[in-house]
Design a protein that fits this description.
Layout: E1 5-11, H1 17-20, H2 27-37, E2 41-48, E3 52-59, H3 64-74, H4 79-82, E4 87-90, H5 92-103, H6 114-128, H7 133-153, H8 163-171, E5 182-187, H9 191-200, E6 206-212, H10 215-225, E7 228-231, H11 235-239, E8 244-247, E9 270-274, E10 291-295, H12 307-366
Parallel strand pairs: 5-6, 5-8, 6-7, 8-9, 9-10
Antiparallel strand pairs: 1-3, 1-4, 2-3
């Protein structure tokens, strides 16, 4: 396999949240990153989620120092501060990693469904902007195919668990243990919020409201799940009566929930789970009496997946990887054949030109 394929990234199991929340790439930041990387690559795929930042490059250079400096510039770090948190893979290892990510084998909750959609979004974004090139376009398609097969052909995702399910089941379960109605606020309108609302809507004894800076989006989402909608300006008032807050906005610039939002609460406890990255909730709220704040870093999975399911998923990944390797080999051979054919054609043209010149010289001498 060509050594030009490069992975450079950071994930939730290796890097503190304070660093990861600074290395996030929305659509605008991805365009800036692609522009910075363009002189160094033939293709680029950027995957940025609440759990990981990953860059896959068909690179002219795979030197770690070059990419560390580029990312430090893009995200306003010094190279010394960023370097310890970056992990690099090259060639076959880089390709295998993307396939494992798409399959859900690298997720906090093995087999969780969101990551496949996130890989698809990153792939389509790169494809629409013409950023992938042939190698990453093929690798991306392979990763999506592998992710679909793992979920269709194995029991890895049979539980349907996700990070929002983990938050609700493990950390908000106490809010639903009694028959009195519980008031739950969901902050955000993205994929995590939609998953949370779908699960909360099935819970008995709950009153749910969705809050967003984009009130129109909150109204649309609330209508879909038959819950209430509130603008962000109403959040402090709503928190005075709420029992729990699930914060999962993916577009926060600064803390959306600050200490002043809960200073006038009554005495009932408030349970907050912050799934956002960057974080939605000021960590200082953990010191407020009656507030229990659980951040993303403290969430852990529902146990391990069945060994048979893991083994099946790994086999699908390896078969997908082999197809990608075969494609690369075939492409390299085709390039070699094309180069040979071009060389033969050039040699034949040179011979024809030489014969033409010789004939001209002979005719001139004869004259």
């Amino acid at each position: 396999m060509s050594g030009s394929l490069l992975y450079c990234g950071m994930t939730q199991d290796r890097v503190p949240v304070g660093i990861r929340e600074r290395v996030q790439a929305d659509a605008a930041r991805r365009r800036e990153l692609v522009a910075l990387a363009q002189p160094h690559v033939a293709g680029l795929l950027v995957l940025s989620t609440c759990e990981r930042f990953e860059l896959y490059a068909d690179a002219h250079t795979v030197e770690a120092a070059c990419w560390t400096a580029l990312l430090a510039r893009a995200f306003s770090f010094s190279t010394d501060a960023l370097a310890p948190h970056l992990h690099f893979r090259r060639g076959e290892s880089a390709a295998r990693h993307l396939l494992r990510v798409s399959a859900g084998l690298e997720s906090r909750i093995v087999g969780e469904p969101h990551i496949l959609r996130q890989v698809r979004t990153a792939y389509i974004d790169g494809l629409e902007h013409g950023e992938l090139g042939a190698t990453l376009s093929t690798l991306g398609r392979t990763a999506l195919h592998v992710g679909k097969r793992v979920r269709r052909e194995t029991q890895l995702a049979s539980t349907g668990q996700s990070i929002t399910a983990l938050a609700i089941e493990k950390l908000l379960a106490g809010s639903f243990s009694q028959s009195s109605q519980r008031r739950i606020i969901v902050l955000g309108t993205g994929m995590l919020a939609r998953d949370a609302l779908a699960r909360l809507a099935r819970r008995p004894y709950t009153s749910v409201a969705v809050v967003s800076r984009g009130y129109a989006r909150a109204v649309e989402l609330a209508g879909r799940f038959d819950v209430d909608a509130l603008p962000l300006s109403e959040l402090p008032r709503a928190l005075r009566r709420a029992d729990a807050l699930l914060a999962c906005s993916n577009a926060a610039q600064g803390f959306l929930v600050q200490r002043r939002c809960v200073h006038s609460r009554r005495q009932q406890p408030l349970q907050i789970v912050d799934l956002g990255l960057p974080r939605n909730v000021d960590p200082d709220l953990a010191s407020v009496p009656g507030v229990q704040l659980v951040q993303l870093e403290r969430l852990h999975g529902f146990g391990t997946a069945a060994p048979a399911a893991l083994a099946s998923a790994e086999r699908i990944v390896e078969r997908g990887l082999q197809r990608f390797i075969d494609w690369q080999h075939g492409r390299a051979q085709a390039a070699c054949i094309a180069a040979v054919q071009e060389g033969v054609a050039a040699t034949a043209a040179q011979r024809r030109d030489r014969h033409v010149r010789i004939r001209r010289l002979k005719s001139q001498v004869a004259a």
